[in-house]
Amino acid sequence: MFVIAYGALRSGTTLLRLMLDMHPGLSCPGETDFLFDFTAIAPDGRVTIDADRLGRNRIYRASRARLDPALPGREALIDMIGQLRDRPDQCVVLMMHRGIETALRLFPDTPILHMLRDPRDVARSSIGMGWAGTVYHGVEHWLRTEREWDRAMAAFPGTRTMTLHYERLILAPAEELARITSFVGLPFDPAMLDYHRASTYDPPDASLVEQWRRNQTARDLGLVEARLGPLLTARGYAPSGHRPVFPRRMERVALQAMNKRAIWSLRVKRHGLRDPLLVGLAKRLRLPALGHAAQARIDARTVSEFLK
After folding, report:
1. Which UniProt key words apply to this protein (predicted)?
2. Is the pLDDT of residue 18 over 50?
3. pTM for this one?
């Protein structure tokens, strides 16, 4: 048995994973987007997995799952999911940020936890991770994740889902974890509240909620909320009250330049000039093999220095 926990990056999915993994009936091995990132479904329903690209994926290589090339596509996925549990009687929780449409096409009866965090906080957090240089661009991946969610729910309206807000998980962790365990058919276990004793994460901290009120300017909030549009309130978050800012063409060009410059500067600071340059050149020339070794070095450095 497995369930999916689906939410945008920087939405609290790592915190949720650490909490759930303390439950003896659950196995939450980490991010599992690799299961569906390289999976394709042909018009005739045939499922294939790109073993070459999967084998180069940093998260896959760090996981305990291994692809059995002798198995057909869907059966190979089931086999890999089974490898992610510590005991046969455990329920595996797949932590995913994308690929929910593919997952539901293959496993339409899978229950799903939909993890949400205020996108204004997600946008700011993305800058700290080096994924964006402006909040305007920092909210892009949240939008992609949530738009995919809407498409998936329209295509699979009978899916059993539960919505979980990061803010409630921080402010009332026992109550929210009890809801989750009830959803997956397990009793609540107070050990889930002790996740910080087995990780580098701190106990729930209320100051992590609504950081945008302290850390973002009126213009930043206007830019983000204009880009979010009705999705902000549709996901249960109230507007800040600041005027939405819709940048004109030249303003968008300036924001894009600022975004690229900040991302590139941080990459060079972390990895030096050579490897980011080779990876970027490989993408531009559409010669992926040119960047494989450089990407492998970046991945190794990321794991050893930035993901401790």
Report:
1. Transferase
2. yes
3. 0.90
